[in-house]
Amino acid sequence: MTARRDPRALTPVERPAPDETRAQRIAYRAYLLMERVAIGADERVGRAAFSLLGRAAHRLAPGVRATVSGNLAHVLGRPADSPLVRAATREAFDLYARYWFETFRARTFSEEEIRRRFHIEGLEHVDRAMEAGGGCIMALPHMGNWDVAGQFMAMSGYRLVSVAEELRPPRLARLFLRHRQALGMEILVLDDSKQIGLQLAQLLSENAALALVADRDLGGRGVEVEMFGAPRTVPAGPALLSLSTGAPLMPSSVHTVAGGWRCIIGAPLKIERSGSMRDDVTRMTRALAEEFERGIAANPVDWHMFQPAWPDVPGGPAGDGDRPGGRDAPLLNPE
């Protein structure tokens, strides 16, 4: 188990590698600066600075703004240029700025503050799984603040393990690895090897709780599902892991509320086995997507999806390396 780092310790500045691109250097410096402002500044000053950053990003990043508007147009069932979608897009940027402030600021929160501000429903499903001894899988969309959720679980004595996208430059990946370790989580890096599934299965056998953010199909090999009336793909991994290990798969979501967060852990998904693993994975993944859809519909502007979630959304296929949140120097949405 990874030892928890000093939560307030700032990430040491690393020198750039010779092959870093200009965009990668900018991304690294931007996140390093955000960490320092969020942790070191007076809270009111920090919140104001990040709020200004959110408004500036909305105004000055038309490509990303078009992507968010396109996603929200699907969710809200209105044209991307409608007043409703335009207003929702502005609010989505505001909430995303709040996410970034609070995810770094969380390292300064006391346990009492976390417990006061973080409200959780359905934790009994996790406890039952822990009693059974085979671990559990919580799958969730990019909503609310999943980092604070991980911090709460680790603080509460659960062995919480998550998976992070392999980012470039490597020093940016190390920044986020240190950050999440400081919150008490164990992190596995998702690379191109096939070992990640075996590692996760081993962790489940050790009765770990896995938290997998699973509403983006990074590899392009996911299951086609229907969400908000249109087809898209989501990862098959959570369902495959659940069906192959017997660990319960629990659809979960985190919602931003006034003064804090609300987390909902759903009951384990159950399907009747057909004898075909492929078919069973498809059916369970589609059931999971239905739960994601309900969670997103409850507060669409709290869905931090800053890459195209559907093929017709501006910005190209989700997960492209040159888009914010792709593998190359993400500027807005690293895992």
Keywords:
335 residues, alpha/beta, two-stranded antiparallel ribbon, 15% strand, globular
Please describe what this structure looks like.
The chain is of the alpha/beta class and 335 residues long. Helices cover 47% and strands 15% of the residues. It has one domain. The protein has eleven helices and nine strands. A seven-stranded mixed β-sheet has the order 1-9-8-2-5-3-4, sandwiched between helices. Strands 6-7 form a two-stranded antiparallel sheet. It is globular. The two termini are 21 Å apart. Mean pLDDT is 92; it is low at 316-331.
Question: In sequence order, what are the helices and strands, one letter per element?
Answer: HHHHHEHEHEHEHEEEHEEH
Structural class call reads alpha/beta
Strand order of the largest sheet: 1-9-8-2-5-3-4
* Mean pLDDT across every amino acid position: 92
Question: End-to-end span in angstroms?
Answer: 21 Å
Helix segment count? 11
Poorly predicted runs are 316-331
**Count of structural domains:** 1
Shape: globular
Which quaternary structure do these chains form?
single chain
Total number of strands: 9
Rg, nearest Å: 19 Å
How helix-rich are the residues, as a percent range? 40-55%
Main β-sheet description? 7 strands, mixed
Strand content: 5-15%
Short description:
With 335 residues, the protein is α/β, with parallel strands linked by helices.
List the helices and strands and how they pair.
Layout: H1 22-40, H2 43-60, H3 62-76, H4 83-105, H5 111-117, E1 118-121, H6 123-132, E2 136-140, H7 146-155, E3 160-165, H8 170-182, E4 186-190, H9 195-205, E5 209-213, E6 223-227, E7 230-234, H10 237-245, E8 249-257, E9 260-265, H11 277-298
Parallel strand pairs: 1-9, 2-5, 2-8, 3-4, 3-5
Antiparallel strand pairs: 6-7, 8-9
Helix pairs in contact: 1-2, 1-4, 2-4, 3-4, 10-11
